[in-house]
């Protein structure tokens, strides 16, 4: 994955100040007054590939204490060098930001031996191009990164979507079980994101996958935007099907339907998703993990400008419900 394990461990020896346990004390304390029930966050490269700039915007302009890590300096996070990991940790400390999870590209690959989808949909890679054979290495690397950045949570997928996944579903589920079991050895939580280009796209499909993969540390990265892009009404329809105690992360973006079919991304609050209802439901169920902005919409011209508009819409929806975020 670019550097040896020895080099990585040497470069991140100073990570002892972090803990791999959620809620443990990192290099700095959380704000004394924390009224928001969620860990409000943003995916760093939805702002900029310049990691320090992203952290500055997240902390100073957005007023956040949490950030989700996916890619920086035009690299996927799993491809960072030891020096870059060390530098990014220093930047996080400088801006007093804690990491919600490692948004790894784990299992965002073709399932071996299965025919490719006839739809030929565009696939978001985010600078990741490892094949199926490399996925065990991606998992090990993600675990190392989670330890270095003081989080227990690692995001994954369940392979590029097939026209007919039934012949392969049992084997896919077994691979997810094995990955969750590996994560459990290091006290990690594996978060499956429902993704419209992968085999678990909607709340309904997520409920089926969770029922099949019962590892206690295997949870859902609930993404209503992706579910809506797949044609579902994510709230309340998709959400009501989910086992609420297995939602371990939430991505926030919005969608509009195109007149001729299909979808387009929209600023949060400007699409079809009932985010106010979703936020109320999450708070009512006692959800206290991340609500992480993943804008995807680029209508303002640049990732940063678009994300600034979406964070405003997100906070307006939260404030309208009196959630104090």
Automatic annotation (TrEMBL):
It holds the Pfam family AP_endonuc_2. It comes from the Bacteria. Residues 58-315 form the Xylose isomerase-like TIM barrel domain. The keyword Phosphoprotein does not apply. Keywords: Isomerase. The keyword Isomerase applies. GO terms for molecular function: isomerase activity. PROSITE patterns: TAT. This is Sugar phosphate isomerase/epimerase.
């Amino acid at each position: 994955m670019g550097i040896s394990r020895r080099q990585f461990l040497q470069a991140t020896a100073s990570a002892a100040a972090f803990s791999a346990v959620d809620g443990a004390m990192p290099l700095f304390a959380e704000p004394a007054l924390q009224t928001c029930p969620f860990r409000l966050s943003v995916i760093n490269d939805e702002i900029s590939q310049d990691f320090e700039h992203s952290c500055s915007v997240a902390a100073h302009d957005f007023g956040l204490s949490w950030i989700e890590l996916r890619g920086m300096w035009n690299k996927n996070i799993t491809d960072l060098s030891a020096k870059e990991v060390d530098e990014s940790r220093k930047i996080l400390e400088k801006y007093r930001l804690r990491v919600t999870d490692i948004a790894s590209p784990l299992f965002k690959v073709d399932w071996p031996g299965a025919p490719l989808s006839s739809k030929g949909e565009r696939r978001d890679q985010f600078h990741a191009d490892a094949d199926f054979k490399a996925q065990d290495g991606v998992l090990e690397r993600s675990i190392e990164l989670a330890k270095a950045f003081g989080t227990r949570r690692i995001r994954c997928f369940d392979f590029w979507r097939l026209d007919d996944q039934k012949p392969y579903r049992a084997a896919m589920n077994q691979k997810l079980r094995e990955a969750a079991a590996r994560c459990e050895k290091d006290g990690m939580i594996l978060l499956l994101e429902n993704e419209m280009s992968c085999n678990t796209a909607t709340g309904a499909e997520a409920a089926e996958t969770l029922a099949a993969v019962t590892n206690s540390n295997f949870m859902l990265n609930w993404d209503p935007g992706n579910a809506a892009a797949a044609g579902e009404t994510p709230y309340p329809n998709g959400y009501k099907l989910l086992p609420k105690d297995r939602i371990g992360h939430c991505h926030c973006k919005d969608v509009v339907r195109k007149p001729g079919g299909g979808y387009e991304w929209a600023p949060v609050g400007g699409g079809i998703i009932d985010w106010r209802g979703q936020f109320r439901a999450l708070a009512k169920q006692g959800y206290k993990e991340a609500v992480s902005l993943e804008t995807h919409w680029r209508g303002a011209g640049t990732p940063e400008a678009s994300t600034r508009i979406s964070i405003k819409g997100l906070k307006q929806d939260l404030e309208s419900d009196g959630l104090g975020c």
